[in-house]
Amino acid sequence: MSKDRFVAHLDLDAFFCAVEVLKDPGLKGKPIVVGGRPEQRGVVAAASYPARKYGIHSAMPMAEAVRRCSDLIIISHGFKSYKTYSRIIMGVIRSEAEIIQQVGIDEAFFELTDQIDHWDDGITIAKRIKQKISRDVGLAASIGISTNKMIAKIGSDFEKPDGFTVVRPGDELKFLAPLTVQKISGIGKQTTKRLNEMSIHKVLDLRNTPEKTLMDRFGKHGIQMSRWSNAIDKRSLTEERETKSISQERTFSSDIHHESPLLEKLESMSEKVAQQLAKEETKARTVTVKIRYADFRTITRQQSFQVGIQTKEEIFQIATKLFRKYWDHTHPLRLLGVGVSGLTDKESQLVLDF
Ligand SMILES: [Mg+2]
User: Fold this and answer.
1) For the chain, what are the domain ranges?
2) What whole-number distance in Å separates Cα of residue 166 and Cα of residue 145?
3) Which CATH superfamily is domain 243-351 in?
4) Which pLDDT tens digit goes with each residue over 301-336?
5) Domain 175-229, what architecture?
6) 182 CA from centroid of ligand 1 (Å)
7) Whole-prediction pTM value?
8) Is 134 left (phi over 0), alpha (psi -120 to 50) or beta?
9) Which helix (H) or strand (E) holds 9?
10) What CATH superfamily is the domain 7-14+81-170?
């Protein structure tokens, strides 16, 4: 039997607001938010826990937040200091963990599998990380620990704030069963709605649904969801770093010099890329086309956009434009590829809203 993995997810509690409190301790315990001014149609980027008691949450229009709490203290973002603190926190994690994957300004996975003899030794290390962050930096973090990324991520949110949730090897299914499906990162609002229509609400319901039923409804994503519901998630910490971009490429069995079959390939690859984007519930800001001639001369050309791109039609349209512009239309190709990057998640979208 192979060794159980030890994977942790650390998420700082109300990070932006907590940094503001460090800078001005007088704000402690008060309802504060970081974000734009209400008269400038600002939105809440982050809310302190006292502010959350009023139902204020990130992405809410600031005008609405002020309506809910007349004592609300609005602070414009100090993004530089958030970055500084973020770097300090990541340094603390790095001082203890050999493998770390930062996934946002205030969250990171770390894996201790190969540096510990017994699974419980990892708990000691994780506790020490949490303690260092609290004692040396003055910030609170929530940590989730389990045998894979999916459960670790759910775990860090489970007892937030100041949480420390451990789901031991063998306890994964029991832990997941009563949770609503949307707790799984990778099952978003739309998918949840569709699952609910199939009377699938809890992870246990998902587990009890035949994989084939899920596959017929959701394709590859269905298979993945079925695996997740069975606590199977083999993603490594480095792998996901690579999904900062998604791409497809085809090397042809013989070189192609006609446009129409090349466009067909481009279309099917665009579809695959779009499916992957949908699965990760993200959008891309850049589309790239890769062209390799028979003599191995290779060019990549890309175009970036302000708004996120997600559909196959959008990707295919942009890729076609790039392809037609940069292929010389005379020399045959041995490879064609299409990719997207500049992937946006909820976090970075908020940051860009400032
Ligand atoms: Mg956080």
Assistant:
1) 7-14+81-170, 16-79, 175-229, 243-351
2) 5
3) DNA polymerase, Y-family, little finger domain (3.30.1490.100)
4) 988 887 889 999 999 999 999 999 999 999 999 999
5) Orthogonal Bundle (1.10)
6) 18
7) 0.69
8) alpha
9) strand 7-12
10) Reverse transcriptase/Diguanylate cyclase domain (3.30.70.270)
107 catalytic? Reply is yes
Ligand 1 midpoint to CA 176 (Å) = 22
Q: What is the three-state SS of 190-202?
A: HHHHHHHHCCCCE
Strands 141-146 and 164-166, sheet pairing: parallel
* Closest by CA position to 142, among listed 128, 131, 155, 156: 156
Q: How much is the pLDDT for 217?
A: 95
* pLDDT for res 243: 55
How far, in Å, from the CA of 298 to the mean position of ligand 1?
Answer: 42
From the candidates 20, 39, 107, 281, give the one annotated as an active-site residue. 107
Do the beta carbons of residue 185 and residue 279 sit within 8 Å? Answer: no
DSSP state of 232: -
Q: Give distance in angstroms: CA of 347 to centre of ligand 1.
A: 9
> Ligand 1 (ion): which residues have CB within 5 A?
11-12, 15, 106
How far, in Å, CA of 105 to CA of 84, rounded?
A: 10
Distance 322 CA to ligand 1 centre (A): 39
Q: How confident is the model at residue 1, as a pLDDT?
A: 56
Compute mean pLDDT per 10 residues along the chain, 354 residues long, and list them. Answer: 90 96 96 92 92 95 96 92 93 91 91 94 98 96 98 97 97 98 92 96 98 95 95 80 74 92 96 88 88 90 86 96 94 95 57 37
Peptide bond before residue 332 is cis, with ω within 30 degrees of 0:
no
The CATH code of the domain at 16-79 is: 3.40.1170.60
DSSP state letter for 3: P
Ligand 1 center–CA 13 separation, angstroms: 5
Cα 49 to ligand 1 centroid, rounded to whole Å: 12
